[in-house]
Design goal:
Elements lengths: L24 H13 L17 H14 L3 E5 L2 H11 L7 E4 L5 H9 L3 E4 L11 H4 L7 E7 L8 H10 L3 E5 L7 E2 L2 E2 L6 E5 L12 E5 L2 H11 L6 H4 L16 H32 L5 E2 L7 E2 L4 E6 L8 H10 L5 E3 L8 H4 L24 H10 E5 L7 H17 L3
Parallel strand pairs: 2-3, 2-4, 4-5, 5-8
Antiparallel strand pairs: 1-9, 6-7, 6-11, 8-9, 10-12, 12-14, 13-14
């Protein structure tokens, strides 16, 4: 048996793919208007009518409310900032625990640390790659105050179960839907299923304005707090007559008018762009589910997956090669955007050393939360050995490209069949 992939019978995919680009003439024209107005941001960090932003920011938020069917949509300068507003909005005390996923961008967990609370990592489900009520439940302690569920790779976490569990324990639920705008779960839009959630508008996501984010919530008080944190809360609360909140400190997380103008048009395109990714991913599922050497997502009527990344899981007992050999072969066939593994946030030095602020162990102090290898066995084995991601938001594709990519995957897998 040869361990080196033999590609003498020529590579299947010989084209190069254009970079995914959601920006068009509409955005260019609108940005020109903003530039000509000379007003690139119309916020004031004091309590007056410009506390909530300029014309485009307000218009963008109004449109986002309609699109996502929520009471409040709050723009921010990144979804990292949005997460920080969301975590800040639920009023944690230092040392409180927030349960989240190790399979997400670091910002999800770090937003917890920024409010001096302690991230606790629940394992992911090997089918959805999301944390679930079952993996969260054993981690709930008297210190647990919230859950940040992450809708990873374009599909919603099982929010009905998670919300139910949260209700039993009086926990808030935050939804990190950076990778799944317009995904739906049991007929509702991902991001809107939690107490507070939101989306990223960074350059790599389904829609973008360069850097930006949108928070969504139906809760008036959480919205108010998030907007205070966005714009220098401390200088505003008293003048604003805020009496039912504890003292607050804020940031400058404000979105500029140019980004807001771009975002309005990006939001208009979101349903179409997301549905296109859905079709691509579902085509890969249809083509690949016949192969028992890998596991691909199931198509379910409960879920619309918008496939930020198409997840593939190797079935090791049926293959005679390592993930690295398989990925190299996939790349040799011309498949772009092949990702080996994903994340294991609990293994980051900040958690391994429990050190985030200077030389102190704050906010862990007397915390017994563990970040030892082994706490998230599913996430770990998938990250280290079995998971391959195909980026679907990085290149412009057609359905025919999906067929070609499927053919190349099946060709490589059949070569490495045990
Ligand atoms: C992109 C991303 C973020 C951060 O969003 P930014 O807008 O880049 O700050 C957070 N969580 C997840 C899951 C992401 O994919």
């Amino acid at each position: 048996m040869s361990t080196k992939y033999d590609r003498t019978n020529s590579k299947l995919i010989n084209k190069s793919f254009r970079r995914y680009n959601s920006i068009g003439e509409e955005e260019i024209a609108e940005v020109n208007q903003v530039l000509q107005s000379g007003i690139l941001s119309d916020y004031i960090g004091a309590w007056n009518d410009k506390f909530y932003g300029g014309k485009y920011v307000k218009e963008c938020e109004k449109f986002a409310c309609e699109l996502f069917g929520v009471k409040h949509a709050i723009t921010v300068n990144s979804w990292t900032s949005g997460l920080e507003c969301a975590v800040g909005s639920i009023n944690l005390n230092p040392g409180d625990e927030v349960i989240t996923s190790p399979w997400t961008m670091s910002a999800t967990a770090i937003s917890i640390l920024h409010w001096n609370a302690v991230p606790v990592f629940a394992d992911i489900c090997p089918d959805s790659y999301c944390i679930t009520a079952e993996t969260i439940r054993p981690l709930i302690t008297s210190k647990t105050k919230a859950i940040i569920a992450v809708d990873i790779f374009g599909r919603s976490a099982e929010l009905d179960q998670i919300n139910k569990l949260a209700k039993e324990h009086n926990l808030k639920v935050i939804s990190d839907t950076a990778q799944a705008p317009w995904a739906s779960y049991k007929g509702k839009l991902a991001g809107t299923l939690a107490d507070i959630g939101g989306y990223s508008l960074n350059f790599h996501k389904h829609i973008n304005c360069g850097e930006g984010g949108i928070i969504v919530t139906n809760d008036d008080e959480l919205a108010e707090r998030a907007m205070l944190i966005r714009n220098h809360a401390e200088s505003v609360v008293e003048k604003k007559g805020v009496i039912n909140l504890s003292n607050m400190i804020g940031h400058n997380f404000r979105m500029g008018e140019i980004e807001a103008a771009i975002t309005i048009h990006q939001l208009k395109k979101l349903p179409k762009l997301a549905e296109t990714r859905s079709r691509f991913g579902n085509r890969l599922v249809k083509n690949l589910k016949v192969c028992d050497l890998i596991k691909v997502p199931e198509i379910s009527t409960d879920i619309t997956n918008v496939y930020y990344v198409f997840p593939i899981q190797l079935v090791p007992e049926k293959l005679n090669a390592s993930r690295e050999q398989i990925c190299k072969a996939l790349e040799q066939e011309g498949i772009p955007g092949v990702q080996r593994g994903y994340q294991n946030l609990h293994m980051l030095p900040v958690f391994q050393k429990k050190q985030a602020y200077g030389n102190s162990n704050f906010p862990w102090l007397d915390s017994t939360v563990s970040y030892a290898k082994g706490i998230c066995p599913v996430a770990e084995i998938l990250h280290e050995e079995l998971f391959i991601g195909l980026s679907l938001c990085h290149y412009e594709y057609t359905l025919e490209d999906m067929d070609l990519i499927s053919e190349a995957i099946l060709k490589v897998l059949s070569y490495f069949k045990a």
